[in-house]
Design brief:
Elements (H helix, E strand, L loop, with lengths): L2 H6 L1 H16 L7 H8 L3 H20 L3 H31 L3 H8 L3 H4 L7 H22 L3 H14 L7 H7 L1 H12 L1
Helix pairs in contact: 2-4, 4-8, 4-11, 5-6, 8-10, 8-11, 9-11
């Protein structure tokens, strides 16, 4: 199977990645050693999803490179569903765990992860918006570099940037998502 055919089915592997991540977070026991191993490494589903998102963002920016329209399309596509989920989840968190209103608001606005104040129960959404805001810049980088060697050097540079955030769990997982997303964009190219 060619790379083009694999990319053509990226929505399928994005669904598998989501299911794998949900399986990892599930609060249930599995009586299979193989399934327990698969469950224990379910965080890789997030990496697969980020990689596939990078491919999709590259294609989207190839069709229309206007940064504002790109972000607007992402907002229209994601925020309404996210807010519906957040209303239900926030009501649950407020009722059963007494989560503070500012914590809920920060998560609702997708910025709690960047405050360093903790209780950011959806770090991924903040990381996702960071990758979306950087996608036009990453595409510009990819348009200017012509060799795989330079792409790998830039990817290593992005990985090294995450070292600056080593003392913060949420920042380190956010920053380490950037090289994966960038490589997805490269594969899209």
């Amino acid at each position: 199977m060619s790379l083009r055919n694999i990319i053509k089915y990226r929505n399928v592997w994005m669904c598998v990645a989501i299911a794998w991540t949900v399986f990892m977070h599930g609060n249930f026991r599995v009586n299979s050693e193989t399934l327990n191993i698969i469950k224990s490494i379910g965080f890789a589903g997030v990496d697969i999803f980020l990689f596939a998102s990078g491919i999709g963002c590259f294609y989207s920016l190839e069709k229309d490179s206007d940064c504002f329209r790109f972000i607007k399309r992402r907002i229209i596509r994601i925020i309404p569903t996210y807010w519906i989920f957040m209303i239900a989840w926030s009501a649950y968190k407020r009722s059963f765990s007494g989560m503070a209103f500012l914590t809920i608001l920060g998560n609702f606005l997708c910025v709690r992860n960047f405050t360093g104040l903790g209780e950011d129960f959806n770090w991924y959404i903040s990381a996702m918006w960071l990758t979306y805001f950087l996608a036009p810049f990453f595409k510009g980088v990819l348009d200017r570099i012509n060799t795989t060697y330079m792409v790998l050097l830039f990817t290593v540079f992005l990985g090294l940037l995450s070292v600056c955030f080593w003392d913060s769990y949420t920042f380190i997982i956010t920053m380490t998502s950037l090289p994966i997303f960038f490589l997805g964009m490269y594969v899209g190219k």
